[in-house]
Amino acid sequence: MDKAKYKIERRYIGVRHNTRPGLRLTTGTPAFFVAHDTGNPGATADNHYTYFNNLKDRSASAQVFIDDTKILEIIPTGTGPDPAEKAWHVIYNVTTDNERFGYDANDAALGIELCYGGKIRFVEAYKRFVWYLAYCCDKWGKNPSTYIVSHKQLDPARKSDCEQALFAGNKTFKDLILDVGAELAAPIAAPDFEPLPVTIAQSLIRNYIQPAWFSSHNFGDEAGKTHFHNLANNLRLAAGIALETGKAAQPLTRLPKSNAQEIIFRWLSPAWFQAKAAGDRTAMNHYHNLANDLRRAAGIPEE
């Protein structure tokens, strides 16, 4: 499967006994996955982050909320650097989860919520829901047919999710499991760009971007500072360099074409012409190669 198809955003709610108790899953890593829907048509992943970050009058939560624009983990799941934690997404007095998996869902499973309805585009939200479930199955070696269960299947007397949201999008739970399987089997799409070499990214930042940032700083140009900061970070993302010291690198990202063109026209082209005027073919080749490195990282044909 294509593990870089979508970005996983991690923004955790505060630790509080009724929403995020801060306790590790009993099983360490997730033993199975409970597919939910929010039952709250039109509410986005961000809306649910805000709700659960402020909830005080009852115990409820889930680890993940997915809408048509993002996959948002509000409690650690183990997909990132933080170990998986418990959430309160299935009541303890149902026994189906224990009979089927040997554990209570809150203690051993991830609760993964599909946002739907209102202005949320079902097709886009569903794609992300399918991909995230496939990503989890791939990461922990789980068969989706066995280890993905809906909330309705665990608690049919009380719950209708995630089938109710799937029905709204003309899908069934069987469709969901088949689509997760297809996502797992899908070949990785060939990227239409090449990673920027780390040494090249660091050199461009050191020789051009940082001096431009300091110049903006000295002139009190806040917009310029922000622009060059973002430009440096885009180079880091295109090279697989962590944005912050001690943090994991984000998935490789294609360099925006406008960034590549700006660096070429602002700095590399003038340097090339200066080298040409001096008859320095070695320097000319150096700047030409730098420009092509940027073009490849942005998916622009080489010159």
| pLDDT averaged residue by residue | 95
Query: Kindly, what is the distance between the CA atoms of the first and last residues, rounded to a whole number of angstroms?
Result: 33 Å
Question: How many alpha or pi helices?
Answer: 12
Proportion of beta-strand residues = 5-15%
Radius of gyration: 24 Å
For the secondary structure, the number of strands is 6
Major β-sheet profile: 6 strands, mixed
Low-confidence stretches are none
Strand order of the biggest β-sheet:
1-4-3-5-2-6
Report the principal-axis shape.
elongated
What letter string, H or E per element, gives the SSE order? EEHEEHHEHHEHHHHHHH
Helical residues, percent? 40-55%
- Alpha-beta content class: alpha/beta
Describe the 3D structure.
By secondary structure, the chain is an alpha/beta fold. It is built from 12 helices and 6 strands. The chain has helices spanning 45-54, 96-101, 105-108, 122-140, 144-147, 151-154, 163-168, 173-185, 198-218, 222-239, 257-277, 281-298, and strands at 8-10, 32-37, 64-66, 71-73, 109-114, 148-150. Helix 11 (257-277) runs antiparallel to helix 12. The radius of gyration is 24 Å and the shape is elongated. The two termini are 33 Å apart. 36% of the residues are buried.
Based on the model shown, name its key terms.
303 residues, alpha/beta
Write the layout of secondary structure elements.
Layout: E1 8-10, E2 32-37, H1 45-54, E3 64-66, E4 71-73, H2 96-101, H3 105-108, E5 109-114, H4 122-140, H5 144-147, E6 148-150, H6 151-154, H7 163-168, H8 173-185, H9 198-218, H10 222-239, H11 257-277, H12 281-298
Helix pairs in contact: 4-8, 9-10, 11-12
